[in-house]
Amino acid sequence: MSTRTSELKSTIATSDFDIDAINSVENSNSIASWMPDKVLQKIVAANLNQNISQITKESLANLTELKLIAPSERHVVHGERQCDVSAGEYRLRLKLTSLDGLEYATNLAKIDLAPSREFNHKWLHHTIVNSTLTDISALHHLNKLTSVNLEMCSVHDIAALANKPQLIQLNLSYNAIADFSPLKTNKRLLENGSVNLKKQIIRVKSIHIPAESTFYTPDPYKLFDFNGSNMPLKIETGKHLNSSCFIKQFCSNWSNHVGQITDEQTVTWNLLGLKPGDGAAMTVKFHSMNRVQEPLITGWYIIPFRIVTGQPITFHFKDDDGNTIACEQKLYGDINTSSNISIPSFTGYSIAAKLVDGIKTPISQDFVTTTISAQVQDITLLYNRDKPKNITIHYQDENGKTIAPESITSGDFNKQKVIEPKDVPGYTPIYYEIDHNGNSYHLGSIAILLNSQPQDITFYYDRKSKEKVSNVIVRFEDTDGNKIAPNKIISGFINDQQSVPALKLPGYTIKFKDFNGSHIINNLDTTVITLKQQAQKLIYVYTKSKVERKNLVKADSIANYKHSEHQRLSGKTSPPNDKKTREQQPSAKINNLSHLVLTTLILIVLFNVLGLVLMLYKRKRTK
């Protein structure tokens, strides 16, 4: 049984004003992107006493009260109430469907979009005529609401009315609400406020039942009270309802024993006595348990049905591997009734063929033609699974620098792939970004749905300061393992890259390098090292230059000569070792004495010349 709520049949006459004409009004285009319902635009404009073109998101902050017919459109003349709204305009406003855009009315306190019983009777000749308003999700964050009147609308989801601390008046009668549990958060409303939630009318899509069926059991009814518990059910025969009640025509009155309630929420309906072509409704009444004498919630759940002569056609949906991709569906009708059934589409799959009685037939159109018969039929629609695009994962630091190679992952179409940040030494993951959209998210397991579009995930990391390392020793040695230059120590952060050049040492030429035990003879001028947690070792190995070897004897001779000259000038001599050395010692003393006498004579001459110059200078000054 489908639980989707359908719109109530309305007795509204054809309006002189067409909704499409309103949609073409030029001055509404400025707000169409954030308030798409053109009827709501007219209602808001009337309540703000502005033209539609003047309405902005900012001006909605001035809206504190919103009514289907604005106070400025009502007048009292000579004691009688008059209204500026025409019958056609009133019918048009009942075509309101969505409140999107009202989320900007942050000061809205009162909202009353209920149809007028007076105008319903005057212009539509019925007191109870619902508007088509279904979507009230825009009220979700309007926490200043004190009064909400949405009576006689078509609302079925009231989650947006949860957590309204100032709400004290609420009227949701004559809607199609099956779940009232969101209201449990409004304690002030339920304890001391004014609440009217009666006469909910939930009518689902009509079903067909084969003629030979004697019993029918739909899915369990899901009707929830304030606390989320199931509300009690009762078969509605309509005996206590007056003839003018709208629900009278849907009452379960085709026999004296139409159904039996089992397991509180399940009803087995007795179809004995019904013939092909007969139509009726499976109708149950429900109510809340909060008040015994007068429950706050009452309503009816209606399943219209018709008895048909043919047997159902069951549709199965499977992929190319035979796996079921959707629940089966049944088509009912009278014998010889033909129809074109639209082929449903499923994300990640493409229709390929149909299988009937073991015969596989390719499908090129978007429908299949069926004919109801007296025999049960099965049709299997076969789909090919689309190939999903890959997910590319990037790893970057907080500055956008890549810190690890990207990775690529794949999976099954329309199935979730759980991705977690990879462990990058020296870094801590901080957040991630999907498809480079600029929106960042806190870390955790990321469930990505694979689809026909390629996707990107970027994990961003923060460098760990405690992971600083100093564990690379660079040595400079000759081929015999002798140290020929001081060692160098390379330090930094894990995963950093540093270039370590070889030293240019006079008399030596680099021959090879040893990096972490690997003998390398190429690119000897420098080495790029990536710092790691483990210690690393780099050795540059040198050999002596060939030119230096050829001049080695000459260099030794020059060194010996310089050493002897130094001894001679300093007067230091080696101890006599032989007779020749002893014979040369007197000659050396004579030479030293000659040098001393010569130096003394030179100094005497210089003093005499200086004295003569001074004497001539004095004589010249006295003249």
UniProtKB/TrEMBL annotation:
<dbReference type="Pfam" id="PF06458">
    <property type="entry name" value="MucBP"/>
</dbReference>
<feature type="region of interest" description="Disordered">
    <location>
        <begin position="564"/>
        <end position="587"/>
    </location>
</feature>
<feature type="domain" description="MucBP">
    <location>
        <begin position="471"/>
        <end position="543"/>
    </location>
</feature>
<keyword id="KW-1133">Transmembrane helix</keyword>
<protein>
    <recommendedName>
        <fullName>MucBP domain-containing protein</fullName>
    </recommendedName>
</protein>
<dbReference type="InterPro" id="IPR001611">
    <property type="entry name" value="Leu-rich_rpt"/>
</dbReference>
<dbReference type="InterPro" id="IPR032675">
    <property type="entry name" value="LRR_dom_sf"/>
</dbReference>
<keyword id="KW-0677">Repeat</keyword>
<feature type="domain" description="MucBP">
    <location>
        <begin position="390"/>
        <end position="461"/>
    </location>
</feature>
<feature type="domain" description="MucBP">
    <location>
        <begin position="312"/>
        <end position="383"/>
    </location>
</feature>
<keyword id="KW-0472">Membrane</keyword>
<dbReference type="InterPro" id="IPR009459">
    <property type="entry name" value="MucBP_dom"/>
</dbReference>
<feature type="transmembrane region" description="Helical">
    <location>
        <begin position="593"/>
        <end position="617"/>
    </location>
</feature>
<keyword id="KW-0812">Transmembrane</keyword>
